[in-house]
Amino acid sequence: MSHINTSSPKIDNIICLNSSDLDSLRLGMSEIVDLLDQMFRQRANEWMVNPPKIFEHRSDTRLYSSMVSFAPSIGYASCKWQSGDADNPARGLPLIQGLLLLTEDQTGQPVAMMDSKWITGERTAAASALLAREQARKGASTLSILGCGLQARKHLEAMTTTLTTLERCVVYDIIPERAKAFKAEKQDNTALEIVVASSAKSCVTEGDIVVSGAPIVEHPKPVIEPAWVKPGCLGISIDYDASWCPQTVAAMDLVLTDDRGQLRDEQRKGHFEGVDQIHADLSELLVSNRARRSDDSQRILGYNLGIALEDLAVAAELYQRAVAGRIGTRVKF
Predict the structure, then answer these.
(1) 62-71 and 54-57 beta bridge pairing
(2) Are strands 329-332 and 54-57 parallel, antiparallel or unpaired?
(3) For residues 181 and 171, is the Cβ–Cβ distance under 8 A?
(4) Stretch 233-260: mean pLDDT, rounded?
(5) How far is the C-alpha of 5 from the C-alpha of 139, rounded, in Å?
(6) CATH assignment, 13-119+309-332
(7) Closest Cα to residue 131, out of 9, 58, 237?
(8) 55: closest CA among 221, 239, 201?
(9) 144-160: average pLDDT
(10) Which of 41, 67, 117, 320 can pair with 308 through a Cys bridge, CB separation 3.0 to 4.6 Å?
């Protein structure tokens, strides 16, 4: 017989948190890396629900996605609705836009609505940094980034926060002005030397860690070839199958992902050609040491697809800080 707690109070107000509110909560990148580390370790041993995201293209450049999850140990459930449009930056709009709804797990009452762009930006970079902390070769000194939008900025922050051996950051964007703007903005705010590459190839070939952040499109035209990837390189795809050629994936010594189910779901839709084997997911790597780097010459590729449990772990912490600090706008519900 189930036991129902009848003493739970009714929640009359939802807290709305915009990007400025979330900034004011001062949840640092290193803290987010730790939150994700804890969540992935818990996921290996606890019941957490994380179905593959609903991810559909309206056109070749526009996508819509919905991501839901809940975890009793975290105490909350969440649903994130987002759009992405590769043409938006030219319109002066964010590439990613959306909202996250957070619900407490005891009675299922909604408690907060948040800017999902903020959460997506932070947790994506933190998940990449977590993978790099575990799988980058010893002494990795050069970070290469393809695409110079929000994620390039967040990944520079996350990687320099997490890895102490980095000395250079090489960047490339198909729009040269974006790469130049990135260097102008970030050079005085980082200890790393920032170099603008003349081509995607020259950017990738230098990288001990290569982060690909091209727009996710329905019909990708990947460019990273096997010969571009040097021994010991850790590749991190945050753009699904937009950048890494199938033959390059096949040439990797190890291939990992944050979530097997989500990758297989995309394969059923015709994506991720060339991914014949996933050696480990991030939980298996952290808890069981499965597919951990065994020597500094191995070439490793990680698909950081972004999962709802990452959103949930970060959103729950943000909500608790907002309640404690009385941050955000209360809306009667």
Answers:
(1) antiparallel
(2) unpaired
(3) no
(4) 97
(5) 53
(6) 3.30.1780.10
(7) 237
(8) 239
(9) 97
(10) 67
Residues in the chain: 333
Q: Give the residue, 177 or 61, on which the prediction is more confident.
A: 177
Domain ranges of the chain: 13-119+309-332, 137-306
CB 111 within 8 A of CB 103: yes
Task: Decide if pLDDT at 4 tops 50.
Answer: no
CB atoms within 10 A of CB 47: 10
Pick from 61, 74, 64: which is nearest to 35 by CA?
Answer: 74
Considering the four listed CATH numbers 3.40.50.720, 3.90.1150.10, 3.30.70.2190, 2.60.40.4070, the one that applies to the domain covering 137-306 is: 3.40.50.720
Q: Where are the alpha helices (DSSP H) in the chain?
A: 19-24, 29-43, 88-91, 116-135, 150-162, 176-186, 200-206, 246-251, 260-268, 282-288, 308-325
The answer to pTM > 0.70 is yes
Burial of residue 301 (number of CB atoms within 10 Å: 0-12, 13-18, 19+): buried
